[in-house]
Specification:
There is one protein chain. The chain is mainly beta and 115 residues long. Helix content is 13%, strand content 44%. Strands 1, 2, 3, 4, 5 and 6 form a 6-stranded antiparallel sheet that branches. A hairpin with a 2-residue loop joins strand 4 and strand 5. The radius of gyration is 17 Å and the shape is globular.
């Protein structure tokens, strides 16, 4: 799923120091040379939890294993939050976000309470 936690970074300093977890949500690819070439994009769809390949006028669902390639040119990440303290559990903010956005479109009890 989405390469969750694929990359970590350090906080920017001050009171907010610490490790953060980043989720990959897009990749811009370039095939060809310096004088020309072709661009495509891989993008994560949060609505259905699938990766898509965009190539000129078509968009197709793709396997997550194909997102990582030598053609990757620019990577797009979204900062999720601070890394958990190593207990292997997801942060409560992440869990609340998942619980409140159920597939059937109805808000869960936990999601309502966390808002």
């Amino acid at each position: 799923e989405k390469g969750e936690g694929a990359e970590k970074g350090e906080g920017g300093g001050g009171e907010d120091e610490g490790e953060y977890v980043y989720d990959l949500y897009g990749v811009s690819n370039h095939m060809g040379g310096m004088g020309g070439g072709h661009y495509t994009a891989h993008c994560w769809n949060e609505e259905n939890g699938e990766w898509y390949n965009f190539n000129d006028s078509e968009a197709r669902r793709m396997n997550e294993s194909a997102v990582r390639s030598a053609a990757a040119y620019v990577l797009f990440y979204k900062r999720r939050g601070k890394k958990d303290s190593g207990n292997g559990k997801e942060s409560s903010r992440r869990k609340a976000s998942k619980d409140s956005s159920r597939k059937d479109g109805k808000e869960s009890k936990e999601g309502k309470e966390s808002k």
